[in-house]
Amino acid sequence: MATVRAGMRAAAAAIAALLATAGAAGAQAHAEGPEMRDARYCEIIPVVVEGTTVTSSVYNTIGLNDCPADLWNALTEAQVNAEYGSQASKLNGPRHFVMDHSAAEGSSASGEIFTFGGIQAKLVARLTTQLGEPTVGDQYYRPNRVQRETQWTYDRGKLIYKLIDPSGAVYVMQSYAQIVDPSLTIDQLASLGSRLNLPEGWRFETRRLRHTMTMTAEGMTSVVNDELLNTYQVMRKPKTRIGGAPRGCIAKRTTLRVHVDGDTALTRVFVGGRRVAETTDADVKVTVKPSQVERKPEVVATSRNDAGVSRAHVRVKACD
User: Fold this and answer.
1) Are strands 254-261 and 283-288 parallel, antiparallel or unpaired?
2) What is the pLDDT of residues 30-43, one digit of tens each?
3) Each residue of 198-235: b (16+ CB within 10 Å) or e?
4) Contacts of 1 by beta carbon, 8 Å cutoff, 6+ apart
5) How confident is the model at residue 5 (pLDDT cuts 50, 70, 90)?
């Protein structure tokens, strides 16, 4: 029994670390919706075991309340277990979001409401593991795979906070925690690098956005935690494609389509060596005239974000 309880507590702790930002999914706020930056929230994670199967349910307060301090401070894991009927549980919070808006789809968008010690919280994730499976969420600076379908939007002019690993992978902060350091505030995040005990090759950076940035998780993503339990999601590199290029020459205006996968990137499109478009849109239509490609018969699209650069090139020749 002690081994079972230890396994359940480990599962709850790991999931709390892994899903510290899952709760934004429950808010159902779109990019033009309510401001979420620095919004306070908490998570309650009851764990139920049936046979060798461990089911951990993540309930989040965002969109319902700001996790009232008096109720949260009084809430205990024993109380959660008694009210929910769980064998173990984890209290994860308080936390504050760093993105400005969120949206969710699929399983991340649904959620029943349960009241724990007077605190209403919405179900935003449910994970099933087996007793004895290794847990990884409490290891700092180690990427962990998380299943969710979400979009986090960071507004132009706002600060983002990044961890960059030795390979160059970029992780953007989604929430900061007041668990290890209850006095941590959003105003202190820009200088956080001096406090973190970063592993060799890792670095912390802050950047003010020149355009609005959206980070998307399409079913699966990677998350890392620092030792203060702040959480960061991996940024996807851009991948640029150009479609609609004719096989032969062009004798009249021709429309090409530029598509960029990955998280928000700044894309510049060049026709015949001259820039004709600059945008952060994922889809761009470009009209090419024969006169534009007489000297330099090519169309080039270059997309760049914090995670990397992608370049697409097609040959477009004017008919003689």
Assistant:
1) antiparallel
2) 334 468 999 999 99
3) beeebebeeeebeebbbbbbeeebbbbbbebbbbbbbb
4) none
5) low
Element (H, E) at 6: helix 2-18
What pTM did the predictor assign?
Answer: 0.85
Q: Which of 179, 206, 234 is the last residue of a domain?
A: 234
Q: In what order do the strands lie in the sheet with 149-154?
A: 101-104, 149-154, 213-218
Give me the number of domains the chain comprises. 2
Alpha carbon 156 to its chain centroid, in Å, reads 17
Instruction: Extract the tokens encoding 41.
Output: 């929230």
**Of 205, 234, 263, at which residue does a domain stop?**
234
DSSP secondary structure string for all residues of 59-107: EE-TTT----HHHHHH--HHHHHHHHT-SEEEEEEEEEE-SSEEEE-GG
Which among 90, 95, 24 has a CA at the least distance from the CA of 57?
90
Domain that holds residue 248: 239-315
Q: What is the DSSP string of 161-226?
A: EEEE-TT--EEEEEEEESSS-TT--GGGGGGGGGT--PPTT-EEEEEE-SS-EEEEEES-EEEEE-
- b or e along 176-190 (b: 16 or more beta carbons within 10 Å of the residue's beta carbon)? bbbbeeeebeeeebe
At 58, list the tokens.
Answer: 């993540």
Instruction: State how beta strands 40-50 and 88-97 pair.
Output: antiparallel
Closest CA to 173 of 187, 152, 156: 152
Amino acid 68 reads: P
pLDDT, tens digit (0-9, with 9 covering 90-100), for 149-189 = 788 999 999 999 999 999 999 999 999 999 999 999 999 99
pLDDT beyond 50 at 270? yes
Contact between residue 15 and residue 7 where contact means Cβ atoms under 8 Å apart: no
- List Cβ neighbours of 122 (8 Å cut-off, separation of 6 or more): 23, 26, 59, 60, 61, 62, 63, 64, 111, 112, 113
Residues 109 and 19 in one domain: yes
